[in-house]
Amino acid sequence: LAYLGAIMSIEYRIPTSEQTERLVGPIGKRLFALVMMVVGLGWFAIQLQFVAKQLVLLAGWESGASMIAFALAMLMVVANYWGIEGITKWAEKTSPMVIAAMLLLLARLCWGDKPTQEASFDWSWNAMPLSLVLAGHIAYAIDQPTSLRFCKSRYDAVMTTWISFLLVISVVQVMGAMAFWYYPCESILVAFSSLSGTFWVSLLIFYLVFQIWAINHCNLFSAQVNLKVCFPILKEKTVWAISAFCAVLLSAAPLLEN
């Protein structure tokens, strides 16, 4: 599915929602764009809330996750004003640092001293995590033309797809499985949060903030593109303002708890 998305990105150089018009017509295209816009805004808000919740736990506060998510959303919508160029610049600067931070944290977790906090986990089968992972990957694969249409060539689009799905995502998931094997708990971030020491806590905070900064811009960009498809009469600044308002509003809503 991701490979087909990469090919379609270069063949037509239009967003995924625009490409659906050949199958479902102009009305169906707008309905599909509306769904993709909601998905993009929803994932944007949920990921921010997840990071904000982890930061609150690290700080030992009883509340404040909504305010942190709100503040992060405000910063990200401003940075997203410059579109794909702004996303590319931020990703280029933050992605290598995020990968390095995660490697250090995983090495510390798997081969360092045993975390001070004892963990407990229910080993019974639960299909929900697998469903969430598959849903996220399918949504990403389907929406690839929205961002890969800016690639210079078919080779660039295909290589980006292979690197993303076969290397980066796979390696990160294997690392997460390894960390879970050494320290089973509800999530890898819970395991990370049990690491003691100012350096490791600071590194974890850095990882949380810049990881979401590096990848969550794409969700907001997708929402903006699909909003434009739904309402082509809107100007670019108006599209940005509407999507930014919705993203900030949703980031403060209790989506993660529901």
Explain how this protein is built.
The longest helix has 39 residues, at 21-59. With 258 residues, the protein is mostly helical. It has helices spanning 2-12, 16-19, 21-59, 65-79, 83-111, 128-142, 144-148, 154-182, 188-193, 198-215, 217-230, 236-251. The mean pLDDT is 77.
Task: Give the secondary structure arrangement, pairings included.
Elements: H1 2-12, H2 16-19, H3 21-59, H4 65-79, H5 83-111, H6 128-142, H7 144-148, H8 154-182, H9 188-193, H10 198-215, H11 217-230, H12 236-251
Helix pairs in contact: 1-8, 3-4, 3-10, 3-11, 3-12, 4-12, 5-10, 11-12
Give the termini distance in whole angstroms. 30 Å
Major beta-sheet overview? none
Number of helices: 12
Number of strands: 0
Radius of gyration: 19 Å
Helix content: over 70%
Give the H and E element order. HHHHHHHHHHHH
Strand content: under 5%
- Can you give the mean pLDDT? 77
Question: Which residues form runs of ≥5 with pLDDT under 50?
Answer: none
Q: Tell me, what's the shape?
A: globular
User: Structural class, please?
Assistant: mainly alpha
List keywords for this structure.
258 residues; mainly alpha
Short description:
By secondary structure, the protein is mainly α.
